[in-house]
Each structure stands twice: as C-alpha cells, then as structure tokens.
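Please, structure for the following, as tokens.
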Amino acid sequence: MSTGEVHTDKELFHLIAEGNEAAFSRLFHRYFNTLYAAMLRYTKVPDDAEDIVQSVFVKLWEKRSMMPAIEKPLGWMFMAARNEFLDRFRKRSAEAGYQQYLKDIFDEERNTPEHLLLLRQKEELWKKAMMRLSPQQRESFLLNREAGLTYDEIALKMGIARTTVKEHISRALRSIRSYLAEHADVMFLLAGTLFRCLAPC
C-alpha cells in the first residue's frame, strides 16, 4: 500500500484483516483523535481516554479476521470504545465516591448545545418506541407511568381486567427496552459526531 493511496474505512478493514500493518497505522491515525475526544468528554481524564482508545485498536488488531464483515467501521470503533468505557464504569462503580464523581461530570454537561441536541435525539427515540406499542399497551403504560394510576384504576378506566392491564404494561416495557437497546448506538454515534469537531487535527 503506497503512502499516497486513499482508502475507505471499509477497504482499510479488509487490508487489516490480511495483516496489513500500514493499513492499521493509517486507520489509527485517521480516527485516534476522534475517538479520544469522545472518550475524554466521558472520562474527563486524558490518560483514561487515551487508554480506552488504545484498547479499541488493540482489540481491532486481535480480531482483525472478523473485520471484513463489519459494514460500518467507524460505528464499530465507537461501539467498541463505548463498551470499553462501560466495562470500566461497572468495575469502578463499586469504588467509594466514584458514582458521585460521574454524576458531577455529567451535571457539568447539562444545558450545553451538545447536551440539548442529545436530549432531543433521546426524545425522538422515545416517541418512536412508544409508537411501536399497540393502542391499549400505550394507554395502559402512560396511565401507569405518567398519570400514576394503579393497575386497578387503569382496569376500571379502560374497562378491562386487571390481569390484562398488567400484561399490556409488561409487553410495553419489553418493547420499549428492546427498541432503545437496539438504538443505543445512535446516541453514542451522535455524540461521537458532535465531539469530532473538537478533536485536534
């Protein structure tokens, strides 16, 4: 691979799968700053952010044989970084004071343009998740979670059995959780796109 050649991310992933170290180096330099900026916003600790990104590229190389199957390389890298961050969060969450530390970090991010945009995106996902529910599931769920009605009160208001109300709400919760889990990467990738402009060139 000549130094002047330009390759797409997908092409680089294919070359990396063949053990091409030059392709790996090119991808590393192409996206290190982008991933680092995103992780720094979450960790607030430069060493932690750098370590997470380094781990992503180590995993990429270790699993290089799987890379040709990846349709969205940048998406895969952001997801890998997010998962690494979450793994570290789970391990550290048991440490004294760390949960408060994280709360303080994210409180600082409130009301920034980035936060407000992410909040709007979350609201859109929530609306779409709600639209997937049947009319009765949606009504039961909203009466319970937003209006604060009990199962008995909902059953009386809707003219259905209490057990039916319970089933509607249970199905609604499963559907909502499933939809949000399927689209969790949307939020992370949006954050990555926002933070990319902050990364040093």
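Confidence is low (pLDDT under 50) at residues 189-201. Residues 21-43 form the longest helix (23 residues).
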